[in-house]
Write a structure and sequence with these properties.
Blueprint: E1 2-6, H1 11-22, E2 27-31, H2 42-47, E3 55-57, E4 63-65, H3 67-75, H4 85-114, H5 124-143, H6 156-166, H7 179-189
The chain binds glutathione.
Domain GST C-terminal: 83-206
Organism: Plastoroseomonas hellenica
Protein name: Glutathione S-transferase family protein
Length: 206
């Protein structure tokens, strides 16, 4: 059985839960309250030296970290990861998530929407808003002519980008500026097997 190490509000862990559900793969969750530091223990670091969630333990006992690498592994051989040039295009948008969007969207969401201490990141927030708006604008332009990021079908390119874009409003982004993105968010939420972010969990706080 798969074991997913996650935290309740992590968008990177959410995308893995969505794909596990969409593939019908049973899994067990080990949930962390991130500030408690249990992802930095020697036992955790032996499996994931980065000390972050998500981490997926495979039925073989081997561990994988980095959400988008986990998606690639799970989607191998399924329609969620096509072959040929479209495969490279899927990877292109997954790298876009990590390099252009994630840090800005997740940083603003955490300090404004979750920690509610924007004053502690007064210098960073305008930088995150500028970078996040740039990324959202790129996505909106790309989605003006298509329903999904690659090949007119739902793939892990969409899933990789979905969580932090869908939660960007929590970080103070005005999503009314991005109508193609908001229509795409609705399309992703409507995919068979989609599961929401865990709302109520006695364990994971962040
Ligand atoms: N690039 C990584 C980012 C993982 C990441 O930043 N995880 C956060 C939660 S979303 C975390 O574990 N933070 C705890 C920490 O930094 O100590 C991925 O996509 O999996």
């Amino acid at each position: 059985m798969y074991v997913l190490h996650d935290s309740r509000l992590s968008g990177n862990a959410w995308k893995v839960r969505i794909l596990l559900s969409q593939l019908g793969l049973p899994f067990r969750r080990v949930s962390y309250v991130l500030p408690e530091g249990r992802t930095r223990t020697p036992e955790f670091l032996a499996k994931n030296p980065v000390g972050k969630v998500p981490m997926l333990e495979l039925p073989s006992g081997e561990a994988l970290f980095e959400s988008n690498a986990i998606l690639c592994h799970l989607a191998e051989g399924t329609p969620f990861l096509p072959e040929g040039l479209d495969r490279a295009r899927v990877l292109q948008w997954m790298f876009f998530d990590q390099s252009e969007a994630l840090k800005a969207l997740a940083g603003a969401r955490f300090w404004i929407g979750i920690a509610k201490k924007p004053e502690e990141k007064a210098a960073e927030i305008p930088v995150w808003h500028a970078a996040g708006n740039k990324a959202l604008g790129i996505l909106d332009g790309h989605l003006a002519a298509r329903d999904f990021l690659v090949g007119e079908r739902y793939t892990i390119a969409d899933l990789a980008n979905f969580p932090y874009v869908a939660m960007a409003h929590e970080g103070g982004f005005d999503m009314a500026r991005y109508p193609n993105v908001t229509a795409w968010i609705d399309r992703i939420r409507a995919q068979p097997g989609h599961v929401p972010l865990i709302q109520d969990d006695a364990k994971g706080v962040v």
